[in-house]
Amino acid sequence: MATRMKLKLKTVFVLYFMVSLLGLIYALMQLGQRCDCTEHDIPKDRTISRLRGELHRLQEQIRKSEATKQPQKPPARQPTVFVITPTYARLVQKAELTRLSQTFLHVPQLHWIVVEDSPHKTPLVTDLLVKSGVTYTHLHMPTAKDRKLQEGDPSWLKPRGVEQRNEGLRWLREDRRAQPGGDNQQGVVYFADDDNTYSLQIFEEMRSTQRVSVWPVGLVGGMKYERPVVEGGKVVRFHTGWRPSRPFPMDMAGFAVSLKLVLSNPEACFDGEAPMGFLESSFLQGLVTMDELEPKADNCSKVLVWHTRTEKPKMKRRGGSARSGTGFRPCGGGLRDTHTHTHNHTHTHIHTVKRTLLFNAA
Ligand code: UDP
Ligand code: MN
């Protein structure tokens, strides 16, 4: 009996031990398992499947749009506008060229040809052009002494910027000759004085010039504006305050010429000896007839360029009194004026010029 009891107890212990061991093994196995977090995973799984669906949809869209896309042509290159600007050293030169360059920065496909009225390229213009960010060519051509306006001369006495515009044309013809396409190159030539005001739209108007395009110019010839008068899409006469009988009674800022026409007429240039008001005509006469002019700016009904003129600043002496303009030719950064004038003027004046030089070169 006692032996049977012992055996039973032993069995109970063994069983108990076995059950505990199994429990322990089960518990240890559970430790390595991920918990059953199904409930937490449901929103996450939903987001993932939603994003998968979205991705699939977008991939489908891209595939479809690529299948229907036409083979893309490279954008057609628009004709370059070559802008020829004569400029000369004076107090306001840097201001004028800064304003102009910052307008040109907004115009695509523009090549600025700057021609200094100077026996050499000045550091001021050189530096300004380098920093401008505009595509440019820097030239120089001094005006012959007998053709140059003298201090105190009324501005209408002699034409200004003639040799410089012709030098710009000479460079352009020579440079283009080296390019493929010969006389048949796309492009437009425009003469932009450094003191005028140009809207950006005028450059887009002129870009399609076939031969010679024309448009109104504001604040010129003592008028609010001058303009070609257009009837039936053709220029029939000119609205101008002075001598409408001139072949082309227009301001320099009021026309552009196609590069083709400039290249196929290698002799066309400005005549510095032309009578007053005939400078523009001297260039255009051999190139085009009135009937062929292409009116722009909404049939010449909009003013997009102004013949503004900058007032000459009145410099004060050190003592504070205003300087009379005579004989005072402040230098716009070029050395020429310092050399020419230092021996003619007072100590104070030399200082003024030197100060200007330092200031302008800054
Ligand atoms: N110009 C020049 N040398 C001069 C005077 C003027 O190169 O001795 C340039 C000037 O910078 C401008 C253009 O020629 O780009 C026309 O000159 P200006 O504006 O004085 O002429 P206006 O407006 O009186 O016709
Ligand atoms: Mn001017």
Largest sheet: 7 strands, mixed
How would you classify the helix and strand content by structural class? alpha/beta
By DSSP, the count of extended strands is: 12
Rg calculated over all Cα atoms: 40 Å
In DSSP terms (H or I, runs of 4 or more residues), the helix count works out at 11
CATH superfamily of the largest domain: Spore Coat Polysaccharide Biosynthesis Protein SpsA, Chain A
Output mean pLDDT. Answer: 83
Give the termini separation: 122 Å
Helix and strand string, N-terminal first? HHEHEHEHEEHEEEEEHHEHEHH
Which CATH class of the largest domain?
Alpha Beta
The total tally of domains equals 2
| CATH architecture descriptor name of the largest domain | Alpha-Beta Complex
The set of bound ligands, ions and cofactors reads: uridine-5'-diphosphate, manganese (II) ion
- CATH topology-level fold name of the largest domain: Spore Coat Polysaccharide Biosynthesis Protein SpsA, Chain A
Polypeptide structure, described:
The protein has 362 residues and is of the alpha/beta class. The protein folds into 2 domains: 80-146 and 158-306, Spore Coat Polysaccharide Biosynthesis Protein SpsA, Chain A; 315-362, no CATH class. Helices cover 40% and strands 15% of the residues. The chain is built from 11 helices and 12 strands. The protein has helices at 2-32, 38-68, 93-104, 123-132, 162-177, 200-206, 259-264, 279-284, 297-300, 336-341, 347-361, and strands at residues 81-87, 110-116, 135-140, 188-191, 197-198, 212-214, 217-220, 223-231, 234-239, 255-258, 294-295, 305-306. The strands form 3 sheets. It has a 7-stranded mixed sheet, sandwiched between helices. Strands 7-8-9 form a 3-stranded antiparallel sheet, with no helix packed on it. It is elongated and about 145 Å long. The protein starts with a helix and ends with a helix. Bound molecules: uridine-5'-diphosphate (UDP) and manganese (II) ion (MN). Residues 85-88, 117, 143, 148-149, 155, 160-161, 164, 193-195, 309 line the site of uridine-5'-diphosphate.
